[in-house]
Amino acid sequence: MNRPIYILAGVMIVGIAAWLLLSHDPHRVTEKQSFLTIDTSTVDYIRIQNKDGDLTMKKVGSNWKMTKPRDFPANAGYVKTLIEKVGGLEMESLITTNKDKLSTYELGDSATYIEIGKDGGKIDKFYCGKPSETYTHTYVRRDGSDEVWMVSGSPKSSFSRTPDDWRDKRVLELDRTMIQRILLEFPDETVELVRNISTPNADTTLAKSDTTWMVHPAKGDPFEPMDKEFNRIMNTCARLSSIGFVDADDDTMPDMSKPEFTVEIFSEGNQHEKIEFMPRTTGDTSRWYAMKNGSASTLYLIYQSSVKNLMKRPDILKNGEPDVNPRDPAVKAKAAKKKGA
Q1: Which of these, 149, 139, 54, 145, lies nearest to 99 by C-alpha position?
Q2: pLDDT at residue 99 is higher than 70
Q3: What pLDDT, on the 0 to 100 scale, is given for residue 294?
Q4: Which of 24, 35, 50, 222 could cross-link with 89 by S-S, CB 3.0 to 4.6 Å?
Q5: How far is Cα 249 from Cα 297, in angstroms, rounded to an integer?
Q6: Could you give the 3-state DSSP secondary structure of residue 132?
């Protein structure tokens, strides 16, 4: 009567033993180790060679900069993410040592090549292949070795960027509370915005200082600007980013000797920024060229809307933007009232 139970138990034991035998991976490490041999806190040199080019970045002081293919500030956020991703790679399984199988894991001669470490010191050199099917692991091999390892982590997105993607797209990043003076320079007039801070009387020591901004037009008396238009100027001065670049060796480099518009920003601590703008007349005309602090080696491409946020004439700063949308109910009502009058 108990014979079927014994048979069933025996089948289960054989099955478990078979599963244990098949699931055992002799190449899987028993204790995970970091793939990098260097301390990521000391990293000041990174090189990435992929299908889009050969990029080198170095840390100068506390800042990262590109040194190849051109000299330009690097995107610090991207660098930070890359170092964190690579520092988190852990070796899990040795997949193969067969050189003929490297292409299977996208680790052949055309694979993405990385160098990371201390400039003039210890540097890890390796190739990054394809991700695992779950995209939680990556196949890698060290330079000079045919060993293909599967490591935890997925840094391939950082290694796949083009050299231009690594460039710092920030044109302006200022603390608006530190800005003291702004010049809006048109070909025919210059508009000056000046910050005034009033000091409380001695008998009102608990009162806060009052900050006001005044517009000084080329003609006429100073006045306080409209909040909406003024805030557009300030917000753009505080943070202005590009969407691309044009370099001196590019055939599309325009003549910036007579800019259409210029903004100059003066902040506390003798900080001064000057951005000159020219509209783009070919290609996508919704983008403008911008030259920062007279550096003609690289121009930024800026959305036209961002430039228009700065290009405020005195009448706009005083009276606000004109009503331009005839379908707006408020505009319709205003037009009807004006017609009735």
Answers
A1: 145
A2: yes
A3: 96
A4: 35
A5: 8
A6: coil
Q: Which residue has the tokens 């231009």?
A: 164
Phi, psi of 91 (to 5 degrees): -75, 130
* Average pLDDT over every residue of 233-255: 94
93 neighbors 149 (Cβ within 8 angstroms): yes
The pTM of the full predicted model, rounded to 2 decimals, is 0.79
Measured CA to CA in angstroms, residue 144 lies from 124, 261, 276 at distances of: 12, 55, 50
Q: For the residues 312-337, what does the mean pLDDT come to?
A: 73
3-state DSSP assignment of residue 304: helix
Strand extents, DSSP E, the chain = 28-34, 45-50, 53-60, 63-68, 72-73, 90-96, 112-117, 123-131, 137-142, 148-152, 170-173, 179-185, 190-198, 210-216, 239-241, 244-247, 261-267, 271-279, 287-292, 298-303
Q: Closest by alpha carbon to 250, among 298, 210, 218, 304?
A: 298
CA distances from 71 to 117, 220, 278, 310 (A): 20, 46, 24, 29
Of 137, 138, 136, 116, nearest to 126 by C-alpha is 116
What pLDDT was estimated at residue 24? Answer: 41
Q: For residue 128, which phi and psi values (nearest 5 degrees)?
A: -110, 125
Given a cut of 90, is residue 108 above it in pLDDT? yes
